[in-house]
Amino acid sequence: MKEKAMEIKYDHHLDEQTRPKVEVELAKGKKEVFNLDQLKSGGYIRQRQKDLFTVRLRCPGGRVPFEKLKKIAEVGSKYSKSDYIHISVRQSIEIPYVHYKEFSPLAEELAKVGQKIASCGPRVRVPTACSGCEYNPNGLVDVQKLCQQIDQKYFGIQCNHKFKISLSGCPIDCFRTNEMDLGFQGAIEPRWDEEKCIGCRICGYACREGAITNDTETGKPNMDGSRCLYCADCIRACPTNSWEEGRKGLVVRVGGRHGRHPVHGAVIAVLLPEEKMGQVIEKVIEWYNEKGKGMGRVRIGDILMEHWSSFLSFMQPTLGEYAARDPEKPQQITIHSFQTGWMSGHSVIEE
Predict the structure, then answer these.
(1) Are 192 and 214 spatial neighbours (Cβ–Cβ below 8 Å)?
(2) What's the burial of 170, exposed, middle or buried (CB within 10 Å: 0-12/13-18/19+)?
(3) Whether residue 175 sits in one domain with residue 286
(4) What are 289-294's contacts with CB under 8 Å, separation 24+?
(5) DSSP letters spanning 164-226
(6) Which pLDDT score, from 0 to 100, does residue 21 have?
(7) Percent of the chain with pLDDT strictly greater than 70
(8) 14-53: per-residue pLDDT in tens?
């Protein structure tokens, strides 16, 4: 028996040809006329269902206090036409199926516990981060603290396109700093104190990158700095504290993105002190907005691939001694090799 094909219904209210603008009360007693793109920029994302929107909440680093979480559940169950909330891949809580006429009371109730609406569109988005060193055994840097600082100072700044910032506490890079417009990853440089070393070889076993090998006779370590990821595994494993914490800071990546046509971001700085993070953010955004003038909605990675030398020269005074040596520009990642035409030379389909 032939199975019945799934029917996909297309709601042409998505086109909004008959009603390009709506009157919306975003704040109590204040009605304004918006088109749907403007509403999306404010964190109200239209759905395929007529008059219904998903409301995206501002949750930097995915950290939501219990008080806010309870209120979100209460408000969601009251104003959503569904029975759930959605947690996005970038840690935002989203309340779907909200009628646009109920934006104002929904926002007003959330504001009672300080919960803000997020944003979309061409601007700095809500930053994402892992748990960092607060309670994660692998964490090297308090990226939650840095994430809150970024959100408070840079969230919503206008850019040519969306601008995503992410932070990972260690080289495992759970929050994919290489796939973000700008990413910061925790790092610690290990230092060896020979006097404390007993030649136990534990550090060599702990190092998963082959950066540490042990002398066959003495057991003393030999370090290949070119292979070190600054993960601090050797420091944690050493029973005599022979391996100690040296410089601590951030690996900085720029120009990455995921999606249909992903780009692998480029490392531009290593062991950057945390206190210089803000300067880097400001300079990167300054260069992006200046270089992107007249180019329309284009991500920073696309501009960097064309103007890499210009960017490095611009950033050098800010990065200083922490600048990576001869960094390669962001690289496109082929994930649609079956396509033809726009990815010539990579097709697996015979012509």
Answers:
(1) no
(2) buried
(3) yes
(4) 289/158, 289/159, 289/160, 292/159, 292/160, 292/161
(5) -EEEESSTT-TT-GGGSSEEEEEEEEEEE-GGG-----HHHHH-SSS-EEE-TTT--EEE-GG
(6) 67
(7) 84
(8) 444 445 566 666 666 666 666 666 666 778 888 999 889 9
pLDDT for 346 beyond 60:
no
Distance of CA 220 to the CA centre of its chain: 40
Do 141 and 64 share a structural domain? no
Q: Identify the pLDDT of residue 22.
A: 65
pLDDT, position 121: 85
d(CA 349, CA 351): 6
- The β-bridge partners of 31 are 25
Average pLDDT over residues 153-181: 95
Max Cα separation, the chain? 82
Q: What is the mean pLDDT of the chain?
A: 89
Domain count along the chain: 2
* Four-CA torsion 285, 290, 296, 301, nearest 10 degrees: -50
* Residue among 134, 187, 115, 181 at smallest CA distance from 154: 181
The interaxial angle of helices 103-111 and 66-79, nearest 10 deg, is 160
Q: What is the pLDDT of residues 203-229, one digit of tens each?
A: 999 999 999 999 999 999 999 999 999
What per-residue confidence (pLDDT) applies to 58?
A: 95
Tell me, yes or no, whether 1 lies in a domain. no
Give the integer Cα–Cα distance in Å for 332 and 164: 17
Q: What is the domain range of residue 259?
A: 128-332
User: Cα angle vertex 269, ends 275, 242, to 5°?
Assistant: 80
CATH assignment at residue 294: 3.30.413.10
**pLDDT for the residue 50:** 87
Q: Are the C-beta atoms of residues 207 and 234 closer than 8 Å to each other?
A: yes
Asked if residue 174 lies in contact with residue 227, where contact means CB atoms within 8 angstroms, the answer is no
| DSSP classification of residue 124 | B
CA distance 287 to 149: 21
37: part of which helix (H) or strand (E)? helix 36-41
Statement to judge: residues 94 and 172 lie in one domain: no
d(CA 186, CA 145): 13
